[in-house]
Design brief:
This protein is α+β, with helices and mostly antiparallel strands. The chain folds into three domains: about 60 residues, no CATH class; about 90 residues, no CATH class; about 120 residues, no CATH class. About 35% of the residues lie in helices and about 30% in strands.
Length: about 290
């Protein structure tokens, strides 16, 4: 939508574009939006006009963030669904004032976008040139068959991204300064959960990550920064297979931990209810998906 005043600009723009240039940003955005109908093009043109390409990347990332069922998600960024799903990919999009999750693509169909004949045939059969509605599966299926980049490029601009997987603190032990809870939940009631980066973590991948963390790290920090404030002293990757072998029944699969808190200030924040969740920081390399 066009902006009538600078006060209407998104907070991310107001925070990152100098006030003296916000009017210019708004004017260019409105003009390009009117001419093209594309918000994406309007954003790029506006930042190009104020010569803030470095800020543009930062703000665009913020503008692409939204909330879906209480979780922060990235808009317009497809992700692969787990094996066994009836669709191959999913994506979060804006539908009016709401966020919608769209699933698309046959899990048994190969995407041969590098084959010009196959690509042209698919796009012609599905009338891709007329698909302009982002809230439909057809739009995104056609998007996967565009030329110019691989499917892996579409799923992730960087094959190594920082991931923060949050889990709820469920129990505290005052005497030993221990907090217990889920560090990460990957399925609930048998359904895979999508994390905040739009990814689905498979059980065996989670178990390997947990093992490496416990073997080499185990350190707890405040919001991933500064000095060590605690240490993971208990750790349990709970998958359906592990739970069944131990006689443990749970509607969740994930990672259960107990963190011992050393820092007095952090412990007071836990006790006051200001810190209510674990946030596991790490780097993950997404699988390239070209089929």
């Amino acid at each position: 939508m066009p902006y009538s005043t600078n006060a209407e600009l998104p907070k991310a723009v107001q925070d990152n574009v100098p006030e003296s240039k916000q009017g210019q940003w708004r004017s260019v955005f409105n003009s390009v939006l009117e001419d093209t109908g594309s918000e994406e093009r309007a954003i790029r043109a506006a930042y190009s006009a104020v010569n803030k390409t470095d800020v543009a990347s930062k703000v665009k990332a913020n503008l692409n963030k939204a909330e879906y069922r209480g979780e922060k998600v990235t808009l317009d960024k497809p992700f692969r669904l787990p094996k066994g799903s009836n669709k191959k990919f999913g994506v979060y999009v804006k539908s009016g004032d709401k966020v919608k999750r769209v699933t698309f693509g046959s899990p048994t169909m190969e995407i041969r976008r590098d084959d010009p004949k196959a690509r042209a045939s698919f796009r012609a059969r599905h009338n891709c040139d007329s698909k302009t509605d982002k809230t439909t599966a057809g739009y995104w299926s056609c998007k996967m068959w565009e030329s110019g980049s691989s499917v892996g490029d579409m799923l992730s601009k960087d094959d190594s991204e920082q991931a923060n997987l949050e889990g709820q603190i469920l129990k505290t032990d005052d005497e030993q300064r221990l907090v217990y809870g889920w560090a990460s939940v990957i399925t609930e009631d048998g359904k895979p959960l999508v994390d905040r980066q739009g990814d689905v973590i498979e059980a065996d991948t989670m178990v390997k990550a947990v093992n490496k963390f416990m073997e080499h790290i185990r350190v707890g920090k405040m919001m991933h920064k500064g000095e060590q404030v605690g240490q993971v002293v208990h750790s349990m990757p709970l998958t359906n297979e592990i739970g069944e072998s131990l006689g443990i029944s749970s509607n969740r699969e994930g990672w259960v931990v107990a963190l011992k808190v050393f820092d007095d200030e952090v412990w007071s924040l836990v006790k006051s209810g200001q810190l209510t969740a674990f946030s596991i920081g790490g780097k993950a390399k997404r699988k390239e998906v070209d089929d």
